[in-house]
Design brief:
155 residues; alpha+beta; OB fold (Dihydrolipoamide Acetyltransferase, E2P); 2 domains; 47% helix; rod-shaped
Amino acid sequence: MSGAGWIAGLYLLGIALIILELFTPGLVLGLLGVASLGTSIWLLFAWHGPLAGALGLAGGIGALAAIGAVAVRRLRHGEAQDLARYSVADPALATLRGARAVAVSPLRPAGVVRLGKEHGERRIDVVTRGEMIEAGTVVEVIEVEGNRIVVRAAG
């Protein structure tokens, strides 16, 4: 294979590796692609003169710009997804505000409480706002934010 063949092969390999990086993130293929593309452009300058090197450089910049545009479009599409449907919070937790429960474990400041019959007599993990509450104390739910349930001693 002639010198021009090796340079063309390195050039195309670099572009192919950069494109593969879009589908297999991890930075390794992208770095190898940039190194291959850069080496081929350097060889163009060294072996075939400034005109060939400048054309190779312009082509490489154009290819990277096109690949970058595709990558940006792909990232925007991923961000446009409706994240609300991926919530891990149980919708029934929102109804707990104001509910009373009994601390099953000491709340220091996190622990477990048992809800009453109106909420299915289930155990849930809760936190306090920093105060320590002993097991057996009646508590009241004062805040529900996602899966985080904040309680205080019922007064």
